[in-house]
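Pipeline run #58 for the internal structure catalog. This entry was flagged by the ingest filter as a single-chain record with no existing model, so it goes straight to prediction. Upstream metadata was stripped on purpose; only the residue string is passed forward. Reviewer on rotation: M.T. Logging verbosity set to normal.
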Amino acid sequence: MKFTLFGATGGVGAQFARQACEAGHGVTAVVRDPARMAYTHPDLAVTRADVMDPEAIGPLIAGRDAVVSALGHRGPGPATVCAQSARSITAAMAAYDVRRLVVVSAAGMFTDGDGPFTRFVVKPILQRVLRENFADMSAMEQIVQASSLDWTIVRPPQLLDRPRTGTYRTSLDTTVPRGMRVARADVADLMLRTLERGEPLRRAVFLAN
């Protein structure tokens, strides 16, 4: 399969690029600064483009089997990158008739399936601290869900730099009970499995170790 990947220099994106290439897929990583892409592979093409410009990224999406976005807010300033990039990516996909999209969001915005302590103590604190980031991700999800694309939203909890296990727990549309953490490598593993299997479509997947 051939993928276009946004957010390839982040933790989850870098893991996805590595795992996809090692599995024999082709990856076009669209980045702002190619020098930040440490991983190299014959099946990995790294190119510079502005994700916020649908006309710029359209040719990099054309003919691909799927688009993957692991973009997220970093550093100071207003958190708008997820929503703005979602508008651009979905517009470019529609223009070039590419239908499959996988995006990374966050489990912290949701409480369905959580126990009382997580629901009423942990999540309210988290949602206050990360309110701008979560607002941006929520807007991104609404844009993706309103599209006619074959989307999957992946919602991980706290992300850790740990080796891939491949034995994480998953749940559709509700949080994973006591699912507080997950390895970035396992998030990438789930994203790749989702694309290879072709499902679930138009659903949100929670996961946790």
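catalog note: The chain is about 40% helix and 20% strand.
catalog note: The mean pLDDT is 94.
status: ready for reviewer M.T.
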